[in-house]
Design brief:
With 269 residues, the chain is of the alpha+beta class. Helices cover 44% and strands 15% of the residues. The protein contains 10 helices and 7 strands. The strands form 2 sheets. It has a 4-stranded mixed sheet with strand order 6-5-1-7. A 3-stranded antiparallel sheet has the order 2-3-4, with no helix packed on it. The longest helix has 15 residues.
């Protein structure tokens, strides 16, 4: 079965945001939104399990696979090289044009290269950075929601999934942001949001793309949660497109319960 890379973190209870953090968030968000055109840089502490090579690779220490990786893993002779995984910091580069954030790039470890005109905010509070980046994702006309949601999840001392759930439910937010939030919910929260993902699938008033994204998110959950929810969608959802999506992902699961459903459908046909 093809599965996306799972992002796992401690699902800690989340309470009211301390006023100092909220003030830092507002201050950092305002600094980002008022920055001049060009490149804006910030850095913050990563989660303890996050490391990277400062350039193309970000990973979790307890996994053999990459969280994000671009570039070649071989040298000029074709031999594989071993990349050193550095503790941090998380470094985010925001491209600002016409007063709006147009692009975000993220690295873990390493140092910034000298570049004329770049504005560097230096090290900032990790929770404030995460909150400010998620506020950027809420901007309705911002097409790079995934580019800012991902680094928000790498921040130390913050539990992101409750805010992702609020973003996913916010119909005033952009569609891309909501779809990205639903995807990362399945990766970050897993079992904790199985019911909520099922609610998205079954909401007849919801945008179809959002419902289809929720079907995919269910396919990323542990089988004990995802497969039963997909079977319910395949059996009972009134939208044929949603039933078709559910059947497709059940077909990728190699789960005996999915095979029983296919046999039932074929027998009745």
């Amino acid at each position: 079965m093809i599965r996306a890379l799972l992002l796992t973190g401690g699902l800690l209870a989340i309470g009211p945001i301390p006023s100092t953090v909220a003030a830092q968030d507002r201050g950092l968000y305002d600094r980002i939104r008022s920055a001049r055109d060009g490149e804006l840089r910030l850095a913050y502490a990563p989660r303890p399990d996050v490391c990277g090579d400062g350039e193309t690779m970000i990973r979790y220490r307890d996994r053999d696979s990459y969280v994000r990786y671009s570039g070649s893993s071989r040298d000029g002779s074709g031999r594989r090289w071993v990349r050193h995984c550095i503790d941090g910091p998380v470094r985010v580069s925001l491209t600002i044009r016409d007063g709006e954030v147009r692009r975000a790039r993220v690295y873990v470890g390493g140092d910034w290269r000298d570049r004329d005109g770049a504005t560097d905010l230096g090290m900032v509070s990790a929770p404030a950075a995460s909150s400010a980046l998620l506020r950027l994702a809420r901007m309705r006309d911002f097409g790079g929601a995934d580019d800012v949601i991902f680094p928000a999840m790498l921040a130390d001392s913050v539990t992101v999934w409750p805010e992702l759930l609020r973003l996913a439910r916010d119909r005033d937010a952009g569609r891309k942001a909501r779809k990205s939030a639903i995807f990362w919910l399945s990766q970050e929260a897993g079992e904790a949001v199985a019911k909520e993902l099922g609610d998205f699938v079954n909401d007849r008033d919801e945008d179809r793309e959002i419902r289809e994204q929720a079907v995919f998110a269910l396919s990323q959950l542990p089988k004990d949660q995802g497969v039963p929810a997909l079977i319910r969608a395949a059996r009972t959802n009134p939208d044929p497109a949603i039933r078709k999506k559910a059947l497709f992902w059940l077909g990728q699961s190699d789960d005996p319960r999915a095979l029983e459903l296919f046999e039932e459908i074929l027998t009745k046909g």
